[in-house]
Design brief:
The structure holds two protein chains of two kinds.
Chain A lengths: L3 H6 L8 E6 L2 H11 L8 E6 L7 H9 L4 E7 L9 H19 L6 E6 L4 H18 L4 H4 L8
Parallel strand pairs in A: 1-2, 1-3, 3-4
Helix pairs in contact in A: 2-5, 3-4
Chain B lengths: L13 E4 L3 H12 L4 E4 L20 H15 L4 E4 L2 E9 L2 E8 L14 H5 L10 E3 L9 E3 L6 H5 L6 H9 L3 H11 L3 H7 L3 H5 L11 H15 L15 E5 L3 H12 L4 E4 L8 H4 L8 H13 L3 E3 L7 H6 L2 E6 L5 E2 L12 E3 H9 L9 E5 L3 H12 L4 E5 L11 H9 L3 E3 L2 E9 L2 E15 L5 E5 L5 E4 L2 E4 L3 E2 L30 E3 L2 H4 L4 H20 L37 H4 L12 H9 L12 H5 L13 E7 L2 E3 L16 E3 L9 H16 L25 E6 L8 H13 L3 E7 L5 H13 L4 E6 L14 H13 L7 E5 H4 L7 H21 L7 E3 L3 E5 L3 H12 L3 E10 L23 E14 L2 E8 L2 E7 L1 E4 L16 H4 L14 E3 L2 H6 L2 H15 L4 E3 L6 E2 L9 H5 L5 E5 L5 E5 L9 H5 L5 E2 L5 H13 L3
Parallel strand pairs in B: 1-2, 1-25, 2-3, 8-9, 8-11, 9-10, 11-23, 13-21, 14-15, 14-21, 15-16, 25-26, 27-28, 27-29, 29-30, 32-33, 32-37, 33-34, 37-38
Antiparallel strand pairs in B: 4-5, 5-24, 6-7, 12-22, 17-18, 18-19, 18-20, 31-39, 34-35, 35-36, 40-43, 41-42
Classes of the chains: A alpha/beta, B alpha/beta.
Chain lengths: 155, 1120
């Protein structure tokens, strides 16, 4: 739960929690290059890196929402760029299915986003992240999930 | 950096010449198959860029990223000695191969140490110009390291007898860093205020700015710097780090040579005493130079600075006997008594009253013996002494002063400004005339007779020799005749102690040593009358000789840049705007001629800065060494670094760029291979293929060089419930965040649960930084380490985000110092903490988030690689076309056990079309090849290191075992899993290996390969690839390859379905079902099977199910 102090800190702006799940190859290269170029990232964005987006299963995406993410973005390689072959395909399939589940859970499907990048598109990645942050900000912190028993543990 | 090949210790290696992708591929194949390699290119980096592009920033970024891991792996490979900016000095054929010497130009920034923090660029005074000398180097692209552009020393610096680094103090002055600028001067010149006034500034004569407009007013800028310092603080010299020597040294004479020598001897640690006959120190500076040119306050202050730094001066002491000095305990004596005796005119009347020498006159003036001068004054001579005397005479009240000079105005040795100022003060100059007689009346001079001269042929000095015109004598009135035609040394009392020549000069050898051991001499007493700066240079050189003599050491080079002159001067841009040289403000002539107050007023700060900005910075790097001071902890920058020479023997030479290989006549000889004989138009894949082919051909010559490695067995991670976590925060040489923020981050980490140690280290990618981590690891008995630096992961492979610094840190920690990779967690706070503009609080808050996640990860860390599998050297080559033959032949030469099936057919498949080049089956190809003339292949089963090939040979069924299978004939391609992996984008997925199939260990030659290179070359390339794959004789498990929990696996086969690398298979278990099994050395560690597993029976290291879930919970679950 957001504390009143936090509410004050964000000065009217609704604080949302964003999780990016990132493939180690093209999107991470973008993220890394953006960091080296000191491009500003959305403030509440956290990144989780895996070797390939194919590593992620639907359960983990749902877990992210369960643990309190207001938005999850899957950052993938372009379909033809995958180092391992099936990664982006698995990503598309997972997103398609999790969106259905989100719908059933009463969570806005827009809270799950999937984007692909070439290895050099650091500016595109940063722009995408900001747009994603704005989009989730517009949706606000999750409420629908609460009604359906989604946990928001305060550790 | 651990380099297997630091200078001098490579004895045998393959030579690779040139830059480019072909060369990169050659290096990869040779190094990874176990060959030592010296890679030489004159280019600044190893990748010639496609399409004539000049820098990495210009070429398709996407492509650049894909080459990064390969580039890093190869250039930093322990078997590769990679030399940029290098050339082949000599190459000769010897009995055991080519004997080669390669020379690398000095690398002033050591790529093995540079952390790329960029502080040097911040302090470089000429960084914000059109030619910044420090730039990010592409040498180890991707890397942050810097390159320093240094040319031959600037002309002003070489023109200065003292070698004062003019360019550096111009650069520093231009950026208003006056104190640093003066420190640069003081390094080489202890008397800047004096030289700023009276130096004849040969620097300005050589200034290249004169080609644009006018020379920079260097001397006046120096004067400004010295004056500014005098007005602010007492001149001082850096006293730190000086050693103390016991040997006392006596210097005779406190003139420019004596003072300078004493200063440098004192700095070298010797106790020095100067003996000065006059009651004040300064020598000719005080006695021979007018106070209106060199105010006594300046002279006194600069002498005092030398006294204050520890030199003793005994004034009013005339040394009568050298023996007494030695008796007093002095170990060496340096005679710097100068040249104070005027040369006489040698004409009738030159002994009359009123005839005197310039030095004599000035000495009388400056010792208070002369206070006024009446009548007409004639001065003979055209040097600075003549004008000093003439201008002094004006001020002493002479009715008229005339300077008589025998040549033209342009021939005068006096400085132009002095001549100009003298004329402003009413002094007349007559040219082309020489005195012949002095009229004397009553013992007193009354007039002067001169003769006109004409200019004849040039003499030895290059000036035209004046010749008298007969009958042109004329007379002028003169109450005083001042002879300023030169001086000579006079050793009053000492001349019997040391040998002198006819002109009274002390004879010294090159080491400034006189005829008597322990007695040295320098300055005008050796050279005859010289300039101030010339005498100082003598003093300085003599000091280093005396010092070397006392130490019994050889003289070490000055650190003066003369030794490293690489590269021409920067050209001034064509559109360089013309700017007027700053004019020195003068006191008004009518006023100044009445007194001895200083004539020149000096530059203002604005004038000095503007003037310094006119400097063209000819040598690019100005060697102000500001960068060295900020790089002290890292030690990457060294302006005095020498070039590197590598000599070795090479059985084979591979030439990737022919224009870098001077011995074109050698091309085509045995053992010399070229990259670049293409069948079709050059594209990048062709080049890579050609590189691989020449590597394969060269391998056949280099069997003796192959040293396959054996991977270390992984160590078990102890099961520690209460891990002892150590945190190390790399400050990146102090640039990661403000020091306040860094301290807070360190303290924050120390308070995290489980932390037992927290430390800031200067740099994690520096050998010393890594050693600190290793020491703390041992001393603190750490079981887990969190490294907060720019390193993104502790894993062994390099990904497209990796760079040289990250890679180096891991090489130091894990390969060199042997720390356990699996105990480390790394977080990249350098690039993701936030830019320099974020507040300290924000930086600490961001670091807290990173650290929290890292502590979580550190607790869950598990073992990485499972182990290794031994692999044999049995190669099965299917297909005996030209491709198969050359492949089999080269592999055989390298000691592989090759079975070559000449004519293959698939069971039920097609025969190979006739017409493919095919030699008859003979045993003459290869000594140990097992030849099979013809066979029908049924199936290939198994995996790399353990293939079973079923075939029928002449109607008999055969089972061949092989570690690697090569399909070289087109009709065999169906045996490989059909995935098209060509095209650049897919190509990099397989590490630029052309022959790979999805089934690792089964290699194939595609028809399009044969369209790129000749069949023979394709075979050689294939052989190179096979040798690379089989190089280590052990198969490493991928460090991230998953484990299967047999209790949970239900044998559904989804993992097998998703794996494109043939790394998962189902094996029957004892319960009648199937269980998944991972072929860990086939695995590439993507984790696709782990994600796909519906029952979480599979899990992988570093990205484990538990870890991902805990991280999700941790990053989201807590209120932030």
């Amino acid at each position: 739960m957001e504390t009143s102090a936090d509410m004050k800190k964000s000065a009217g702006k609704k604080q949302v929690r964003l999780l990016g799940i990132c493939c180690n190859w093209s999107p991470f290269a973008c993220y890394n290059a953006a960091g080296m170029a000191r491009l500003a990232m959305p403030p509440d964005f956290r990144l989780m890196r895996v070797m390939c987006i194919g590593r992620i299963n639907q359960a983990l995406i749902l877990r992210a929402f369960e643990y309190g993410a207001d938005g999850v973005i899957l950052l993938e390689c372009l379909d033809e760029d995958c180092r391992y072959g099936p990664g982006p395909g698995v990503g598309h399939e997972n997103v398609r299915r999790v969106r259905k589940l989100l719908h059933l859970l009463g969570i806005d499907q827009e809270r799950l986003v999937e984007r692909s990048f070439g290895a050099h598109e650091k500016d595109v990645l940063v722009e995408t992240l900001w747009r994603f942050a704005d989009q989730i900000q517009a949706l606000g912190p999750m409420t629908g999930g609460d009604a359906l028993g989604v946990k928001r543990p305060a550790l | 950096m651990k380099r297997a090949s630091s200078p001098g210790n490579v004895k045998k290696a393959v030579l690779l010449v040139g830059s480019g992708y072909g060369a990169l591929k050659v290096a990869q194949d040779l190094a990874q198959s176990g060959h030592y390699l010296v890679w030489v290119t004159k280019a600044p980096h190893f990748l010639e860029l496609p399409g004539g592009r000049a820098s990495f920033t210009e070429w398709p970024e996407d492509l650049e990223f894909q080459f990064r891991p390969l580039y890093l792996r190869v250039t930093r490979h322990p078997r590769v000695t990679a030399l940029t900016h290098a050339r082949i000095e000599s190459i000769e054929q010897g009995p055991d191969g080519y004997r080669i010497t390669a020379v690398q130009d000095p690398l002033y920034v050591d790529y093995d140490l540079c952390t790329g923090c960029g502080r040097c660029m911040e302090v470089c005074p000429i960084h914000n110009t059109t030619h910044p000398p420090l730039r990010r180097t592409p040498a180890y692209c991707p890397s942050r390291a810097l390159d320093l552009d240094k040319r031959k020393p600037s002309p002003c610096r070489t023109a200065c007898p003292l070698g004062v680094n003019v360019q550096a103090y111009m650069a520093l002055t231009a950026s208003s860093r006056f104190d640093e600028a003066l420190d640069v001067i003081r390094r080489d010149n202890p008397l800047p205020g004096i030289c700023g006034r009276v130096c004849h500034h040969p620097c300005e004569q050589s200034c290249r700015r004169a080609t644009v407009d006018e020379a920079v007013a260097i001397c006046s800028v120096k004067r400004f710097l010295a004056d500014r310092d005098l007005s602010q603080r007492k001149p001082r010299f850096d006293e730190t780090g000086r050693e103390k020597r016991p040997e006392r040294i006596a210097v005779i004479g406190a003139g420019p040579a004596g003072l300078t020598a004493a200063h440098y001897l004192n700095r070298a640690g010797f106790p020095v005493t100067i003996f000065e006959a006059h009651h004040e120190a300064g020598g000719m500076l005080r006695l021979g130079i007018n106070a209106f040119r060199l105010p006594r306050a300046i002279l006194d202050a600069e002498i005092r600075a030398i006294v204050d730094s520890g030199v003793e001066i005994r004034t009013g002491t005339t040394v009568k006997s050298l023996q007494d000095l030695f008796g007093e305990g002095f170990r060496a004596v340096l005679i710097c008594t100068g040249a104070h005796r005027d040369l006489r005119l040698g004409i009738p009347g030159d002994d009359a009253e009123g005839v005197l020498g310039a030095v004599e006159m000035l000495r009388s003036l400056h010792t208070g013996k002369m206070s006024a001068l009446q009548g007409d004054v004639a001065v003979i001579g055209g040097g600075n002494s003549a004008f000093d005397a003439a201008r002094a005479a004006v001020r002493l009240g002479a009715d008229s002063v005339t300077v008589y000079y025998r040549r033209e105005r342009g021939d005068m040795p006096a400085s132009l400004s002095e001549i100009r100022e003298a004329e402003q003060e009413g002094i007349r100059i007559e040219f082309r005339c020489a005195p012949v007689n002095i009229s004397v009346k009553g013992g007193k001079a009354t007039g002067l007779t001169l003769i006109r001269m004409k200019m004849g042929k040039p003499d030895k000095s290059g000036r035209r020799r004046p010749e008298p015109i007969a009958g042109s004598e004329y007379s002028v009135p003169a109450d005083r005749v001042i002879a300023a035609i030169g001086q000579q040394p006079h050793l009053s009392g000492l001349q019997d102690h040391v040998k002198t020549d006819s002109a009274g000069r002390v004879n010294v050898d090159k080491k400034f040593s006189s005829s008597r051991p322990g007695v040295f001499a320098a300055g005008d007493v050796v050279t005859g009358p010289d300039t101030v700066v010339g005498s100082m240079a003598q003093g300085r050189q003599a000091a280093s000789r005396v010092s070397a003599w006392l130490r019994g050491a050889r003289i070490s080079p000055d650190g003066n840049a003369e030794t490293h002159s690489v590269g021409e001067y920067l050209d001034a841009p064509k559109d360089q705007p013309k700017l007027v040289r700053a004019r020195m403000p003068l006191r008004e002539a009518a006023r100044r001629r009445r007194d001895f107050g200083e004539v020149e007023k000096g530059f203002s700060a604005e004038q000095a800065v503007a003037e310094a900005n006119r400097c063209l910075q000819c040598s690019s790097c100005c060697e102000c060494r500001a960068c060295e001071s900020v790089c002290r902890d890292i030690g990457a920058i060294d302006h005095a670094r020498a070039s590197r020479r590598v000599s070795f023997v090479s059985p084979a030479v591979i030439v990737a760029s022919e224009d870098e290989f001077a011995r074109r006549d050698m091309l085509g000889q045995k053992g010399i291979y070229r990259v670049g004989e293409f069948k079709s138009a050059t594209d990048i894949v062709n080049v890579l293929m050609a590189g691989s082919a020449s590597a394969g051909q060269a391998m056949a010559d280099c069997l003796s060089l192959r040293h396959p490695g054996i991977p270390a067995e992984p160590r078990e991670l102890p099961d520690d419930r209460e891990p002892r976590i150590g945190v190390f925060v790399c400050t990146c040489n102090g640039t990661l965040a403000s020091s306040g923020a860094l301290d807070r981050i360190r303290d924050l980490a120390a308070r995290m649960p489980g932390a037992v140690h927290s430390e800031l280290i200067v740099s994690a990618c520096h050998p010393r930084g890594a050693e600190r981590i290793a020491a703390a690891f041992r001393n603190q008995r750490l079981s887990r380490v969190i490294l907060a630096s720019c390193v993104c992961c502790p894993l062994e492979f390099q990904c497209i985000s990796c760079n040289d610094q990250r890679n180096r840190a891991r090489v130091h920690l894990f390969n060199r110092l042997g720390l356990d990779r699996c105990r480390f967690e790394t977080i990249n706070i350098r690039d993701h903490l936030g830019g320099p503009e974020i507040s300290e609080d924000q930086a600490v808050a961001n670091a807290r988030d990173f650290l929290r996640e890292a502590f979580l990860r550190a607790r869950v860390l598990g073992p990485l690689r499972g182990g290794t599998t031994k692999m044999g050297n049995r190669i099965l080559v299917l297909g005996g076309s030209e491709v198969g033959l050359s492949c089999a032949h080269i592999l055989d030469l390298q000691g592989f056990k090759v079975r070559l099936v000449h004519r293959c057919r698939l069971k039920g498949g097609q025969d190979l079309p006739e017409g493919i080049a095919r030699r008859p089956v003979t045993d003459t190809i290869g000594k140990a090849i097992t030849h099979v003339p013809e066979a029908e292949i049924e199936s290939i089963k198994g995996h790399l290191g353990d293939f079973h090939v079923t075939a029928s040979e002449g109607g008999q069924r055969r089972q061949w075992k092989a570690d690697i299978v090569c399909l070289t004939d087109l009709n065999l391609l169906p045996l490989a899993i059909p995935v098209d992996m060509f095209g650049l984008k897919k190509f990099y997925r397989f590490n630029f290996a052309f022959f790979n199939t999805p089934q690792i260990g089964v290699f194939r030659v595609m028809p399009r390969t044969l369209g790129r290179v000749s069949a023979f070359q394709a075979g050689a390339a294939l052989a190179a690839h096979v040798a690379t794959a089989a190089a280590e004789a052990f198969l490493k498990d991928h460090e991230l390859s998953p484990r299967v929990d047999p209790e949970r696996c239900r044998g559904c086969g989804r993992c097998v379905e998703i794996c494109t690398f043939d790394a998962v298979r189902l094996v029957p278990n004892d319960r009648g079902f199937y269980t998944a099994e991972v072929l860990r050395h086939n695995c590439v560690g993507c984790g696709g099977c782990v994600g796909r597993c519906p029952v979480t029976a599979m899990d992988m290291p570093y990205f484990s199910n538990r870890l991902l879930e805990e991280i999700t919970a941790c990053t989201l679950g807590e209120d932030r």
